[in-house]
Amino acid sequence: MYKRSNIIMMDKCFNEIEISHFRGFDYIKIANLTKLNVFVGSNNVGKSSILEAVFMLSGMSNPIMPARINYWRIPSANNMNSTRYLFHNIDLNNRPMLLARSDARIRRLTFYPFQQNNAVPSSDDTSMSSDIKQLNFDFDTKEEGVFSYHATLFTDLSGVLQQTVDANYKEDLNCLFIPADKNDTNATNNFATLVKRNKKQIVIDALKEFDPRIDP
């Protein structure tokens, strides 16, 4: 099966991305990206994870992103604990690092759980039974050096998700992400409508972009 990137970035697109310690990836680098990219592979090889990493980079100043993409994948309680699945091997010591290059532009993002008194998390801290109270986000438009911008996602005393954003950073990138479970909604009815309007060829031409062997 394939996943088509449903990511529209106006007049901007990423040429290269690097993903470290994110979901099932220890490290992966994807180069020579174009405006249209198709990721091919069997189930559970990381196609959705790549798109989620790109989406997080596109909105790196928005700390609610991790909780949101987890909810899209598996609808559940929208809380901090669901974000543990973004860490490689569900180990909170594996700090994710996401990086994208676009011509001369750079986007870099990392996030990690807040530890009281700067303590190093133990194996117990990273277990499935431990609670995540806060995630810290560091991001920048430079490839190296200390991160210039910071944000947080945390649970308040009432158990409600709250966030702080960096007022010094202004986002200039617009991105649309359509979760996989939303792609097929009403697809059959929509295609039937196109057929009735004698516009079936539009779909055929689009499919041939992926496989020229497709016949009407």
UniProtKB/TrEMBL annotation:
Q: Which domain of life is it from?
A: Bacteria
Q: Which SUPFAM superfamilies match?
A: P-loop containing nucleoside triphosphate hydrolases
Q: What InterPro entries has UniProt attached to this entry?
A: AAA_GajA/Old/RecF-like (IPR041685), P-loop_NTPase (IPR027417)
The Endonuclease GajA/Old nuclease/RecF-like AAA domain sits at 15-110
Residue ranges the record marks as coiled coil: none
What Pfam families does the entry give? AAA_15
The protein here is known as DUF2813 domain-containing protein
Q: Which organism is it from?
A: Bacteroides uniformis
